[in-house]
Amino acid sequence: MQDERKGRTSNEGNTVAQPASKELPTSTDVRMKNSSNKTSSSTVGIDASIATENAVALSDKLKALAGYLDLTSENENFEDAVLDGLIIYISNIMTQRIEKFAGKVIGKKNWDEVDITGDVGTDVDVELLHSFFAVVTNFCSHNRSAILLMKSKELFQSLSQFWFDLKNKALFPFSLPSLQNLSTEVEKRDVLLQEHPSVLIDVIQIVKDSTEIDTFLVPLTTFLANMTTTREVRRLLLKAGENGVFEDICKCLDPMYPKDVRLMVSRFVKHMTADEVSHWYLLQESVNILPIILLPLAGGETFADDEYSTMPVELQYLEPTKTREEDSEVRENLLFALLQLCRLKRCREKVRDSNSYYILRELHKFETQESMIDLVERIVDLLIRTEEEIGEKGDFVDFQVPEIEQWLNGDFVYPEEPSNMK
Amino acid sequence: MQLIFQQNEAKAKFEKEHPEAVKKRQTQTYEEVEKELMEHPFFLKELPKEGDPLPPLLEAFQQLKYSETDNSAADLLENYKQDGLFHFKLKKWRTSAMCFTEGLKYAEDSWEKAKLYNNRAACQFHLENFGSSLRDCEKALQYDKTYAKALIRALSCCSKLSKWDQLIKLHKQYARSVEATKEQKAEIDKLHMQAVRNSKFEAAQLRKSTLVQKLQDENDEKIIKAVEARGIRMKSKKFLRRDREASSDHRVQITTDGELIWPVLIFYPHLAESDLIKEFYEGATFQEELVELLEMNPPAWDSDKEFVIDNISVYFTDLDTGNYVKVDLLTKLKDALKHKKYILPENGVPAFFVMANGNPMCEMILSRMEDKQFEWKQ
Questions:
Q1: B239-369: which CATH topology?
Q2: pLDDT per residue over B152-174, tens digit each?
Q3: Does A314 contact chain B (CB < 8 Å)?
Q4: Taking burial as the number of CB atoms within 10 A of a residue's CB, which of B16, B152, B311, B335 is the most buried?
Q5: Angle value at C-alpha A400, between A283 and A287, nearest 5 degrees
Q6: What is the C-alpha separation between A93 and A58, in angstroms, rounded?
C-alpha cells in the first residue's frame, strides 16, 4: 500500500508534460551549420533585386545569412526592425524564386530525379535552394523570429506547400527541419497552435501516407513528439483525430522503421498518456492504444488458448520468430505509458482483463537493466493485485475524472500545475 | 375553327406528298383495316415479342423518345435517366439497370456519369450482385470523389463480400474527399471499424493455424523418428499424413516421455469381426490388453465363451509370405512391432488376429494358412 502512495505523489504522470527540451535532447533545434563568414546583418545586403540576382551570388548571401542566424543563439540580439526586414526578404525570395522551383520538383520521389538544369524564369540552383531553406530553418530556431514567421500568413502558406505536399517529397529533407524547429520551445508551440492548428492534422496525414523508407519521417515524428508535450495539443489531437489515426502513426513502431523514428513515436505515445481524462478513451477500439504499446514489447512466446482469448487480437498467436523492440529507451517509454494507463481503476481493470500480464512476465525475463526490471515490476504489481487489495481509492488522482467529451468540448479545465499550459 | 383548318391543310399537304398512302386508303379491305387497327397500342392484347418487327405506329412512338437522330444527347440522357428512376421505384431492378446503362452512352459530364454509375450500383445492390455493384460504385467515385453515397455503398459491398482489405483501401482513398453528413460519416466509420476488426481477426486466425500446423508437423517428425529408432519396418513413411476423415482414434501418439501409444486393430477372422484398442501403450503386453478387451467386455458373438485369455492365440500376417506369425501373449507391443517379419501397414494402424484354440473355423483358417492358399488383405 505504501508503495502505491509513493508512486502517486511523485507525480509521474505530470513529469511527462514537461517541455520536451528539458528531458529530450533530440528535440533541440536543427541548425544549418555554416562555416563561411560571420557577418552582421547589415553586411548581408538585403535588397529588393532578388528576382534578377544571379543564383550563385544570392546563394552566397543566403549562406552568410544562415551562418549569422546560427551564431546568434539568443533572440534578444535581434532588433525588431531587423526581424521585420528579414521576414520580408525571405518572403520575397520565396515567391520570386523558390515557388517557381516547386514546379520542377512535383512528383519526383527523391532528389536524384529532379531536373535541376534549364530555365525556370530565372535560373534556380540547387545551392540556392539549400541556402534558402538553411536560412528558414535557422530563422525558425529562435523564438521571436519563429513567432514572426508564423504570424505572417502568406509566408507560412507558401512554406506549407513545401512541408505538406507529398508531390514535393523530394524537397522534404530541406524543408522539414524548419517545421521541426517550430515545435521545440513552448512559446513557439503555443503560437503555432493558435495561428495554424491544422498543421497537426497535415503532419499526421503525411505520416499516414508514408512508407518505412521515407527519411522525412524523422523530423515529422520529432515534431509530433515535441508538440504533444503541450496539453492543448493532446486535446486537439484527440478531438480532431479520426478513427485509427493512432494506429496509423504508431505503425512507425515497427522494426522496419529507423531507430530515431521509433524513438520519437514512443515518446509521442508516452506523452499522449499524460492526461488521465483521456485514458479510458485511449483504451477504446477507436484509438486502441493497448496493443500499440504491447506489440513491440512482446516476443514470440506462445501461450495457451485460454490465455489468448481475452488478449487483443493483434497480440494473439504471434509467430515464434517475432523479435522484441531492441532499443531500451523505446521500451521504457512504452512501459511508462502503460504504467500511466494503470492509474485509474476502470482502465487498470481493462488492462488486467486483457491478460497483458503474460506479455509483461515474459518481458521481465528478457530485461537485464535494473531500471527496466523495476518499471515492469511496478506495472505487474498493480495488475496482479485485485482491486480490493489496492484499496478504496482506486483512482490515483486528486480530482474527479470526467467523461472525455467534456474535456474535448472544452468544458473541463484540467487542474493544473505550472509549466506548459496557457 | 382554326384548328380544323390547320388539320385540313396538313392533310392536304400529306396527301400531296404521299399519293401511295392515299391509294392504299382507297383500296384497303375491311380485314386489312382491322388488322392495322389491332396493331395500335390502344388495342394490343399482348406486348410485341423481342425480335419481331414492331408495328409501324409503335416504332414511331419508340423513335420519338429514343431515336438518336431525332433527339439530342441531353434529351436521351434525361429520358433514360427518368426511365431508370421510374423502374427503380417499381423495384424493377434489372430494367432500371438497363436504362442507366443506356443513359451512360450519352452522359458526358463527370457528374452525370457518377450519378448514373451510382444509380446502377444501387440496382445491382438490390439484385445482390455485390461485385458488379462494387465496380459501379468505384467508377462513380472515380468520376466524383466527393460522392458519399457511392462510398457508403462501395464499403457495404465490400462488407457483404468480406473483402476487408479492399474496404480499408477504399476508405483510405476516399474517406477524406467525400462530402458526408454526420450520419453518413458515422456509417462510413462504422463500416471501416468493422473491416479493421475482421481483418485483424482473420490475421490472428491465420497465425493460429500456422502455429498449430507447425506444432503438428513437429509432432509428426518426432513420431517418425521414434518409430525408426525402434527398428519397426514401415510399409510407407507417410502413414501419418493428415487425413480429414480419419479420426484421432486411428493415429499413433507420442507422450512427453517419448513413449508411443498405438491404435491397434484386433481381427477375429473366422467371423470377420474386429475390435479397436484405441490406446495400446507400447510397453503393455497383449495379455494385459486382451484381458481387458475380451473379459471386461465379452464379445456378443462369442456365445460359447471360447475367446477367453487362456484359450486364445495372437497372430500377425507376414506380408511377404502371407503366413501367420504367432505372437506370445506375454509379448509387449513394441517387441511385436519390431519383429523382423512385421511390417507396419500403410494406414499406420497395426493389426493382429486372435483365434480361439479348438474352434473349428479357426482351425480351418490356420490349416489353410499352411497351404499358403489364403491371403489376407489388410
A1: Ubiquitin-like (UB roll) (3.10.20)
A2: 999 999 999 999 999 999 998 99
A3: yes
A4: B152
A5: 15
A6: 10
